[in-house]
Amino acid sequence: MLGAPGIHRESKKELLEPPELLRSCQSGSTESTGQTWALPRRSLALLGVLDAPVAQAAPWPGLLVVPLQFERGAFLVNFTLGAVAFRGVMDTGSPYLLVSACVGARKAAGRCEEYCARYGCGDMQTGRPSGLPENIIMLTGASAAARWQVGNLELGGTALGNLIFGMLGQTQSFGGNAGAPNFGLIREGRAADSELRPTFLGQTAFTSLAVDLRDLLRPKLELRAASFEQNALSTRAAKLLDLQLLGAPLTYYAAEVESLIVDGVDILRTAFASGFPGVVAILDTGTTGLALPELLFQSFDAARRARAREAGVKASGNVEIKLVPASGFSAPVLQLRRGRIAELGASLDIVTALNGAAGSVFMRTELAEQDGKVPPAERPAIIFLGLGFLLGLRLEIDTNIGLAKFVD
Fold it and tell me: Which domains are seen in the chain, by residue range?
């Protein structure tokens, strides 16, 4: 899936100093990154004409705190558009505010009542037209037709005014979660990319976000119009990489991986042996556990099976990911929480292979390379690091300074 040519790496030790390819992608790099637009899930292949922001009547709050609800492997955000209440998956791996209409196969199968009671439904005319043309958006788990509308958004008890959102119609599943639509939290996309739509955060003044899962009985999302204050507990941080430099259409919250340990075995050498110059983790709260490209999933499965033969199935499948630290910080070391979590009534230790049908975060650029429109480039293997690694932590993402902090 991520078949771009790469540089062979003999040892994971070389990742301790970021390869030149990844170093050039660090946020704040002195190299030109091209302009991004602040207005403007996972893998977006076909994302349409840029539009001016909708006017915001009231001043933006400096801090907005939004309670979260856990359900079916995800934390959900409650919000309203006009008079209609919705719930969406809090998703740091996607950019858009999306809601659903009950149409197509779901309507034909008579499944509207349950779905709409759970997540809320509008119709394809909810809100008013934004002037943007309809398009198809591609997610890791599905593709869907989207109509781009404008509506009055209320979030966390605060009226945020008129914002552009996507109304999803017919959805084609690739075998992923067919639950709530995404409440996307990626802020920026490429200015010159005419395929992008306005992101939710890009239409607001919020430039930092925090996903606070330290108290699982009171999980919350915080949106802030400035950087979070440094405190004594903020000692672990990773520098965010700008994957736009490698052809991604969006500024994913991505960090370089130093090691990926499965039952005591570092499986990163699989990526190096396959020619990838490194491995990058997208911090993705829309993923339950961990999603790996096929080559790394095969190594994960081999290590897990070897451990199971030695110590039993219950003792296998332990995953630890160490991120390359930002300057002046210690390295974030994240462990996949195993077993059933009493506060959530669920297990999040799910490791899956990425579905090739959904494409990669670089898909459109890779297609342009195949057509000879742009020269080929080296790219890292991409993994999606999800909720199972974040329980008990506060993840702070600061787009002002390009840092992801992990606070106990």
Answer: 12-35+229-407 (2.40.70.10), 63-224 (2.40.70.10)
C-alpha span between 145 and 177 (Å, rounded): 17
* CA gap 26, 21 in Å, rounded: 10
Pick from 229, 242, 354: nearest CA to 289: 354
Mean pLDDT of 209-233: 93
Token representation of residue 346:
């669920």
Question: Can you tell me the distance from the alpha carbon of 144 to that of 153, in angstroms, rounded to the nearest whole number?
Answer: 22
State the greatest distance between any 2 C-alpha atoms of the chain, in Å, as a whole number.
63
Give me the pLDDT at residue 58, please: 55
CA end-to-end span of the chain, whole Å? 35
Q: How far is CA 115 from CA 72, 106, 222, in A?
A: 13, 9, 27
How far, CA to CA in Å, does 134 sit from each of 124, 146, 172, 229, 283? Answer: 11, 6, 16, 40, 29
Is residue 141 helix, strand or coil? Answer: coil
pLDDT for 14-68, tens place per residue? 333 445 566 667 755 433 333 333 333 333 333 333 333 444 445 789 999 999 9
**Beta strands, E only, 246-361:** 254-262, 265-266, 279-283, 290-292, 319-323, 333-335, 340-341, 346-347, 351-353
Q: Which tens digits make up the pLDDT trace of 126-141?
A: 889 999 989 888 765 5
pTM of this structure: 0.85
Q: Which amino acid is present at 400?
A: N
**Cα 407 from Cα 238, distance rounded (Å):** 12
pLDDT of residue 210: 98
3 state DSSP class of 34 = coil
Q: Is the pLDDT of residue 277 over 70?
A: yes
Parallel/antiparallel/unpaired status of strands 381-385 and 279-283: parallel
| 8-19 tens-digit pLDDT | 223 333 333 445
